[in-house]
Specification:
The protein is mainly α. It folds into three domains: about 70 residues; about 60 residues, no CATH class; about 80 residues. It contains ten helices and no strands. It is extended.
Length: about 220
Amino acid sequence: MSNTDSFIDEVNEDLKRERMMAALRRYGWIVALVLAAVIGGVVWNEWNKARSDASAQAFGDAVFAALNADDADSRRAALAALNDGEGGARATGRDGILRLLEAGQALETGDRAAALTALAEVAANAQLPDSYRQLATLKQVIIAGAEMEIDARRTLLQPLAAAGQPFRPLALEQLALLQVEVGETEAALASMQALLNEADVTAGMRERVEQMILILGGSETDFG
């Protein structure tokens, strides 16, 4: 390579560096801003995660303390207090859990009306997870019993008994019991037999269903 070519290459490299430096001086603030945003986002996510974890821990501790109160009335009051004020369970979306727990404590104190009201609120709250709402509906039907019309109970239970739903076996059991209630013995027996073939039937439920099959006139050969 001649000296002239070498000189030209050096000049070109110098020009490139000057253009790059000029571009950095002109647009460098954009790069810095992007980097700051990325770093800030990472820091924010970590801080927010830590804050969420701390909040969940505090909420769990508060619920545990409330459930360890001396009597059902005290537990019920303590759970209700967790919903109050800014940052309470209603504000953070955890009220579904508390309302389910409150319903249990209300039932323990004999206040069925309050329990049913709490369960109805959870079941009707479209912002809560479906599993919460379905559990509330199931408990609502069980607690209401004969006070709720059979058709109304059946209407509430049928969607819960659909394939793939989390409480399908329990809903099927309740639907079979409705058949018993209206005197449809053969249909109830068939429903109970079919229920034993469900994949998610627990040992406790299997025992209940087998006992009901015997009560309905079936035999151990119907257990499958």
